[in-house]
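User: Hi! I'm working on a homework problem where we have to compare a predicted structure to a textbook description. Could you give me the structure for the chain below?
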Amino acid sequence: MTVTLNGTTGDGSPVNLTTSTDGTGFYEFTDLAPGTYTVTFTTPGGSTATTPNEGGDDTLDSDADPVTGAAPPVTLVSGENNPTIDAGFLQVAEIGNYVWEDTNANGVQDGGEPGIGGVPVTLNGTTGTGQTVTETTTTDGNGFYLFSGLQPGTYTITFGTPTGGYVLTSVDQGGDDTNDSDAQPGSQTTVAEVLTSGESNLTYDAGFYLPASLGDYVWSDTDGDGVQDGGEPGIGSVTVTLNGTTGDGSPVNLTTSTDGTGFYEFTDLAPGTYTVTFTTPGGSTATTRTRAAMIH
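Assistant: Happy to help. Predicted structure tokens:
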């Protein structure tokens, strides 16, 4: 890395010297006449200067201006050795990835499940020097998003809910962090992630599904042919039970009753596999069997 010394000796003579840091990052300008000097650091490719004057110890902080790379002028007296002019550099980090429709609600990005565009995503965090960071972006048409140019620090990501009645899917399913959903229930925020210099973390995803519904009708099959013929009345107050398992393996057990016209419905169901069971009204016999239904 190139380091430049510019200044003026005590008798007004200009000084312009250049050196490079050694393999361990050290540099030195020797045999200088007393005078006033400025050290300027050339920023390494792909890096940015860290925050100067942090920590209260001038022997351990960075002195380079983040924009110019120059340290404040220093006046040297006869015989002085000043080994405190330092510069710290970092490579910016990035974090992001994907919002998708989890059509089977298993919490895993299965092949063929589409991304969801237009979803707001917010980054909140604190850099290593304590600076607060808040940024907002939106997923692209394929469901991807990215926060780039970040200082190393600790960050969380919060996902907005897609329009259209979507519900957040289960978190941390499937055992592969690159293909699961990371948004926590309720807050829709990820756990805190510590980003280091130059890190690219593209594992933070969120899955959403559209709730399903299941139901219909209980009627008096007056001619016993198993078909809902015109004029055959619905039967109210029949107990109907839903049992099943959502895509992520969660059990579901719900009960309702038919209304006065014989209709019933189970709503806001996660995609999964369900069985509907009808309690036979007193004095009646069922004309059809229960059957399993796969909801998507």
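For your comparison, note the following. The domain at 1-90 is CATH 2.60.40.10 (Immunoglobulin-like). Residues 120 and 160 are 5 Å apart (CA to CA). Good luck with the assignment!
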